[in-house]
Every structure is written in structure tokens, then in C-alpha cells.
TrEMBL record:
GO terms for cellular component: mitochondrial large ribosomal subunit
Keyword Ribonucleoprotein set for record: yes
Top-level taxon of the source organism: Eukaryota
GO molecular function: structural constituent of ribosome
PROSITE patterns listed in its UniProt record: RIBOSOMAL_L3
InterPro entries: Ribosomal_uL3, Ribosomal_uL3_bac/org-type, Ribosomal_uL3_CS, Transl_B-barrel_sf
Family stated for the protein in its record: Belongs to the universal ribosomal protein uL3 family.
Pfam families referenced in this protein's UniProt entry, alphabetically: Ribosomal_L3
GO biological process terms on file: translation
Protein name: Large ribosomal subunit protein uL3m
Localisation: Mitochondrion
Keyword Ribosomal protein tagged: yes
Length: 319
């Protein structure tokens, strides 16, 4: 609608205003179309993407048999209401940005939670948690706050890294701590055959060098076990079965993420060479992106197992 004062202006000014109205309408239409496309189109995982990890509890070890009858020792990890509590974007002094997804796991009573953390969880609209950890991600891998993650975040057949505190063994000697072979158990050594032996370097330098391997406290350190295979995923009980051992005692909190060496780095290398069929491990077609959620698990089978890596069956005699 043209206002009365418009007719008092010259035609050039009227044309300029009409162009401004047209450009504004075009920008609004473009923004509306982009918003609609973003709500409809789902983001896709690429080799340059780094997804968030998960916070789980170690439940213990057991064994399973694949479809060829191969016995595989596995560690069972379980998710306990793992939810997104924050998305972190921090600008470093060198003008680069740090992106991370903060997760909370294992609900705890409100009476045992500090007031500061109560406010943090209230802002995220999630119940209080026992453990809160963050995982560095790429800018396209942020997850909406309050999202509940599922065990299908990891696909059977892929490789993961597990981070946890190792079992504390207390004060131990050099044979157990550093695998020293010990001294002779006879011919004058007597009962000191498990000792470390001489630690000094005679008169020069006349002292023990820093970093000398000696008796001391063993275990209780942050350990990362790399390149463990996901053998099975149970979305109903939120169980993840990993091939091999995981550090920590039973019921300890562990961090799981995509393997940096056998998945992330290998995917980037294959994509750079144009070998797109080898970007993901054998038997893995795609990864849930930006994360595997409870809503996504409703459309998938309750239990998914990885295909056997063995080519032949052990029960069939060889020709």
C-alpha cells in the first residue's frame, strides 16, 4: 500500500523504495525456504565430521558367538539416561573456535546436587546427573539440548576408543609395576631376589636420575584403549558390546567415542584419495548423525549384531 506522501516524491525515489521492498521480500522468502529445507533435510555424516561420544557404565565381561561360531570375549557397557546438557562454542585467542557437546549421565537425587548444578540442569530441562563430560565436535555435529542418546549411536562393526580410570593396585614393586625380571633366586641373593637392584650411578653423578623406574603406586590413571570393535547393540536396554577389555572396575563410568585412528583418520585419508567405498569399515554403511537418539531407535530393530569377520566357518572341515 502506497502512502499519500509517496506521490510527493520523484519517480526515482519511488523506484528505489520498490526495489528495497522487492529485495526484502526475496530475502525473507529465501530464509523461509532455507528454514523449511533445514527442518526437512537431515544432516549427513561426512569424513570431515567429528561426532560426540557417549558416557556409559561398565557392567562387566562375558562372551558371545558370531554367526560362524567364533567365540568373542566382550565387555558390556550400558547407557543410563545419557542426555545433552549444553552445546559449547568458545573462541580462542587465536580467533579459532572450539565446539563441544556436553553430556550428562546417570540420574541422581536432587538433594545430593549442588545449587549451581541444579540451575545448570534446570536450564537444560534435564534431571540432575552424577557425571557431566564434554566431547569436542565439528560445528555441524551439535545436538539439541535435552536430547536423550541411545546405544545405536555406534554402529556394530565400527571401531571406538574407550576412556576410563584404570583399576588402582596400590603400592607395588618394580617387577609388577615395570615388568623387571628380578635378581637371581639363589647364590647369595637370599630373599631380595624381587628387589629392583642398584638405582644409583656410582660416584658420578652420585644420585638417582629423575624418571628412574622404581617401586610406587600402580593404576588409578586415565587410560585410553583404542580400536575396539562394536560387536552388538541393544537399543531396548541401551547395551553396547565391545570386543576386548575396557579399563576400570565394574559399574565405573567410561567415555566412548569414534576411534581416532581406525575410523576418523582413515576416513579422511580414503576420502582424500577418492576411495569413498572404503571410508567406513566393512559392513558399516553410514553413521547416525549428528547422534543416535531414542526417537531414531524406535525405527530400528531392538538388537543389531556385527557381521563376522571370519570368512569360513570353524565347524566346516577344510577341503
Amino acid at each position: 500500500m502506497l502512502r499519500p506522501w509517496t506521490f510527493s516524491q520523484n519517480p526515482r525515489q519511488i523506484l528505489r523504495q520498490c526495489r528495497q521492498l522487492h529485495n526484502t521480500a526475496a530475502r525473507l522468502a529465501q530464509a523461509t525456504n532455507s528454514d523449511a529445507s533445514s527442518t526437512i533435510a537431515t544432516p549427513k555424516w561426512t569424513a570431515d565430521s567429528i561426532r560426540t561420544g557417549l558416557v556409559a557404565k561398565k557392567r562387566g565381561m562375558t562372551v558371545m558367538w558370531d554367526n560362524n561360531g567364533v567365540r568373542v570375549p566382550v565387555t558390556v557397557l550400558q547407557l543410563e539416561n545419557c542426555q545433552v546438557t549444553a552445546n559449547i562454542v568458545y573462541k580462542r585467542p587465536n580467533q579459532t573456535e572450539y565446539h563441544a557437546v556436553q553430556l550428562g549421565a546417570s540420574d541422581r537425587p536432587s538433594r545430593t546436587t549442588t545449587h549451581q548444578m541444579k540451575g545448570h540442569f534446570r536450564k537444560a530441562n534435564v534431571p540432575p546427573k552424577y557425571i557431566v563430560r564434554e566431547f569436542p565436535v565439528t560445528p555441524d555435529a551439535h545436538v539439541p539440548i535435552g536430547t536423550t542418546l541411545s546405544a545405536i549411536h555406534f554402529v556394530p562393526g565400527q571401531y571406538v576408543d574407550v576412556i576410563a580410570n584404570s583399576i588402582g593396585k596400590g603400592f607395588q614393586g618394580t617387577m609388577k609395576r615395570w615388568n623387571f625380571k628380578g635378581l637371581r633366586a639363589s647364590h647369595g641373593v637370599s630373599v631380595s631376589h624381587r628387589s629392583a637392584g642398584a638405582t644409583g650411578a656410582h660416584q658420578d653423578p652420585g644420585r638417582v636420575w629423575p624418571g628412574k623406574k622404581m617401586a610406587g603406586r600402580l593404576g588409578g590413571e586415565r587410560i585410553t584403549v583404542q580400536n575396539l570393535t562394536v560387536m552388538r547393540v541393544d537399543s531396548q536396554l541401551d547395551l553396547i558390546f565391545l570386543k576386548g577389555a575396557v579399563p576400570g572396575v565394574d559399574d565405573a563410568q567410561v567415555l566412548i567415542r569414534d576411534a581416532k585412528k581406525k575410523l576418523v583418520s582413515v576416513a579422511k585419508a580414503h576420502q582424500a584419495q577418492g576411495e569413498y567405498e572404503q571410508v567406513l569399515p566393512k559392513g558399516v554403511d553410514d553413521l547416525p548423525f549428528p547422534a543416535g537418539t531414542k526417537e531414531m531407535a524406535k525405527n530400528l530393530p531392538a538388537t543389531i549384531e556385527a557381521p563376522s569377520k571370519r570368512v569360513t566357518s570353524p565347524f566346516v572341515p577344510r577341503e
